[in-house]
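Example 3.
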Amino acid sequence: MESFSLILAIVVVTALAFDFTNGFHDTANAMATTISTGALKPKVAVAMSAVLNLVGAFLSVEVANTISKGLVDESGIRPEVIFAALVGAILWNLLTWLVGLPSSSSHALMGGLIGAAVASAGLGAVHGDVLVTKVLLPAIAAPLVAGLAAMFATRLTYRLGRKADGKASEKGYRAGQIASAGLVSLAHGTNDAQKTMGIITLALVAGGSLAPDSDPPLWVILSAGIAIAMGTYLGGWRIIRTMGKGLTDLQPQQGFAAQTSAATVILASSHLGFSLSTTHSVSGSVMGAGLGRKGGVVRWSTATRMFVAWGLTLPAAALVAALAEWVCGFGDWGTALVAVFLVASSAAIWKISRREVVDHTNVNDHDGGPDEEPSGVVTQAMAAVTPPPAGTVTDDLSATIPAPVPTDPAAPSAPPAATTV
Amino acid sequence: MKIDWAALGSVFGVSLVVTVALVGLFTLGINGLSRRERAAAQGQSAALAVTGAYVCFAACAAAVGYGIYLIMA
C-alpha cells in the first residue's frame, strides 16, 4: 500500500510539472503578438496571461479528458503508464522550448500516452484511426484555417484603415490586441489546465484512491490552475521570440488580425467539435498575418523548422515515453531511475539554456533572421538553413503555390507534365 | 476511419467569416475615431462617425462576451 501511494504521489507531481511546462510553453500563443508589437510590456503581458489562465482553470467544470479518452484503451491503465507518458511529454516540451520552437503540448501529451500504452500493452492499445482524425488532420487544418482567416483579415484591415492614423488608431489596435489575447489566455486556461486535471484524476482512479467517473477534487483543480499560471508567468521567452519576431515582422494591425483569428479558430473549433491545437492555430495565424500585409515577409526557414518540430512531437514524445515505460517495468527501482533521469535531463536543459538567456529584457531583439538566435547546441542544426532575404520569399511563394494545383486533381500521370512545364 | 468533414468545414467557414467580420468592424470603428481626431483638429465635430464607431466597438465587445460565454459553457 505504501509504495502504491508513492507512485501516485510521483504521478501527481509529474503531472503538475507537465502543467507548468505547458504554461510557459504556451505563453507565446496568447502573448507573442502583443509583446512583439509593443501593445503590452513583456512582464505585464505574461502577468495578465497568467491571471487569465488561472481564472480559466476554474471557469468550467467539464473535464477535458479527450486526451485520455478514445486514443488509448483506458482499461488496465496503470499509474506507471501515466508517469511514463508525462516524462515523454515534459522532455519534449523542454527540448522544443530550448530551441525556441512552438509545438503543441497536447500532441506531446498524446504522444506520451500512446508510447507508454504501446510499451505496456502492445500496439493494439492504440486506435490508429483516432490518431489520424484527432492528431494528424487537425495539425494540417489548424494553421491553414487560422492562416487564411488572418490573411484576409489583415488585408481587410489595411484596406479599410488606410485613412486611420494617429493616436486613435494606435490606441484602438492596442486595445483590440489585448482583448483577443486575453480571450486566448482564458481559453487556454480552461482547455489545458483541465487536461492536467483529467490526467491526475485518471491516475487517481487508476490507483484506486478515487471512484471511477468522479469529478476532479478541489485540490486537483486548484493545483493544476496554479501550476499552469506559474508556468505562464515564467514566460517561455524563447518561444515568444520565435512566434512574435521570428516568423514574421508584425505591425499592430497584423498582430490584431492574427490574434483575433486565433481566438476565433480556437473557440469555433472547440465548440463545433473539431478540436484544433492552440499552438498550431496561433502559428498559422501569425504567418497568415505576415502574408496579408503588402511587403510582409514570412521567414520560411523558421516556419519549416517549426513544421518539422510539429511532425516530430508525437513520435518523439511517444518514443521517450515508451522507453520510460519499459524501464519502469523493471519495478520500483526502474521507476526511480526514470524519475532521476527526468530531473537530471530537465536540469541539463535548463543549464544549456543559461548559456544564452532569453528573458523579458531581450525578447524583442530579433530583427534579423535566425542567425541572431542563441548559439550553442542549437546553432549547428540551424546553420544549415540560412534565412532567405526578403526578396526571395515572394519568388519562393509563387513557385510553391502553383505546383500542387496541377498535380493534385490529375492522378499519377500528371506530375511529369507539371515538371516539364 | 470517419473524418468529420462537416465539422471541419463549419470550423473553417465560421472562423473565416467571424474573423474577417470582426476585424472589419473593428477597423471601421478605429476609422470613426480617427476621423473624430481629425475633425477635432479642424474644430469640427464628427458625431455620426463617432456614433458609428461606438456601434462597431459594441458589436466587437458583444462578440468577446459571446466568446467568454462559449469558454464557460
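Chain A has two domains: 2-374, 389-421. Confidence is low (pLDDT under 50) at residues 367-421 of chain A.
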